[in-house]
Amino acid sequence: MRLAGGIALLVDAATTLRGGPQIGAAVLPAISTVLAALLLVGLWTPIAGVLVFADALWNLFASDHPCCWILVGTLGAALALLGPGVWSVDSRLFGWKRLDLRAQKKGPPPSP
After folding, report:
1. What is residue 5's predicted lDDT score, i.e. its pLDDT?
2. Domain boundaries, the chain
3. What torsion, rounded to 10 degrees, do the Cα atoms 53, 56, 60, 61 define?
4. Model pLDDT, residue 98
């Protein structure tokens, strides 16, 4: 998922910057490039996922092809909720977190 979202952001940023936009219009593709790099290496994935969702939401209303941005926004939100995964910088730095949601068995209360 990180690869799909990162590559989609990089491709869009590259095609936008290739057209030679003005300095003010180049800010959003530059931000998309930074977010794509964060997703590709898996650094600060929950934060990057939320920012990718916000970037996709902005581009959803500002561009002509909303289907792509709906997909990228959904990937960003899913990554923010799921986390980076095993093969990421986040997992190397902070460890891979595993939640155990099974019900724990309660035994009898300890006697005094």
Report:
1. 84
2. 2-86
3. 80
4. 67
Tokens of 43: 């650094």
Mark 40-75 as b/e (b = at least 16 C-beta within 10 Å). Answer: bbbbbbeebbebbbebbbebbeeeeeeeebeebbeb
Burial of 77 (0-12, 13-18, 19+ CB in 10 A): middle
Of 95, 51, 109, nearest in space to 76 by CA:
51
Please compute Rg for the chain using Cα positions: 19
pLDDT level of residue 99 (50, 70, 90 thresholds):
low
Q: How far is CA 55 from CA 34, 61, 76, 87, 105, in A?
A: 12, 10, 9, 25, 44
The predicted-structure confidence for 29-57, as pLDDT tens digits, reads as follows 888 889 888 888 888 888 999 999 998 99
